[in-house]
Amino acid sequence: MVDLRSNQTPRGHETEPFGITYDRLRLDHLFDELLARYPIKRVLEYPAEGSKAMPSIYSLALGARGCHVTLVNPEPQGVEVWKRLGYEENLEVLYVDDLAASGLESGGWDLVWNFVTVGFRKDFGPILGEMGRLSAGQVMTVHCNAFNWGYPWHHLLHKLFRLEWTHGQTDYFWPHKVRAAYAARGLTPTETGLLDMPWWPDPPGFRDIRLHLSGGNTVEDFDWYAPIEEFYRSGEVLPLLLRVLGAIESGPVPRPVRWVFSHLFYVLAQARR
């Protein structure tokens, strides 16, 4: 079931840069690992938002691999990508007013997860508790990594250009604080991992500043184009640089080095039933 409720036309056009394509591919690699380890058939992306990127397509790989995916509060332009790729039969859309008290079925999904956005919120703890209630299997949140060498650079750019900090709460850029939030909600983390490890900082800054100065601070401000859609559609061989970066990241890189260069980390927990 697909319900498109908004006909609002985004103000501008924006193509996702190379780095976002790479982080989507590494997220897909993580999904493949999870599918190999756990009996995941029903997935809830809670909510299916985005952060300066095309929203509501982070779970595409799960739909492509046969999982039934439910997106909560998606953006219509993201849902259209699912339809264009022919994954609509594996897609359901739900709208929830209160993410901390959704009213959805307890234990209705094998994996309940979010990419970055719930960690920006002041009510992360209550939302995390609700994610735990909804899952019969795994709960996972992906977060920006404060140990990345671009984190202080990012703050400096905002100060130099006198820009409002629009990237939400920074407490949950730190893995120990995320793990503590899980524990406070009765969820015991089973894994803390890293992904998206190119050599450039997160963010490099130039695109972020341009979007701020143009007034585009939310995903709804833009009509997005995500190059990864073409990779899904065509199945073509990835560009050489993407393959090289992926091979390096999948190789024997020491964990301290990973913390410095990885843009993202994730925490995974088993739901309590």
Describe the structure concisely.
This protein is an alpha/beta fold and 273 residues long. It is 36% helix and 19% strand.
Structure, described:
There is one protein chain. The chain has one domain: Vaccinia Virus protein VP39 (Rossmann fold). The longest helix has 20 residues, at 18-37. The strands form two sheets. It has a seven-stranded mixed beta sheet with strand order 4-3-2-5-6-9-7. Strands 1-8 form a two-stranded parallel sheet. The chain is of the alpha/beta class and 273 residues long. It has ten helices and nine strands. Strand 5, helix 4 and strand 6 form a beta-alpha-beta unit.
Strand order of the largest sheet: 4-3-2-5-6-9-7
Query: End-to-end distance, in Å?
Result: 28 Å
- The level of helicity is 25-40%
**Which secondary-structure class do the elements indicate?**
alpha/beta
User: Measured on Cα atoms, how large is the radius of gyration?
Assistant: 18 Å
Quote the average pLDDT.
90
Biggest beta-sheet profile: 7 strands, mixed
Number of separate structural domains? 1
Can you tell me the CATH class?
Alpha Beta
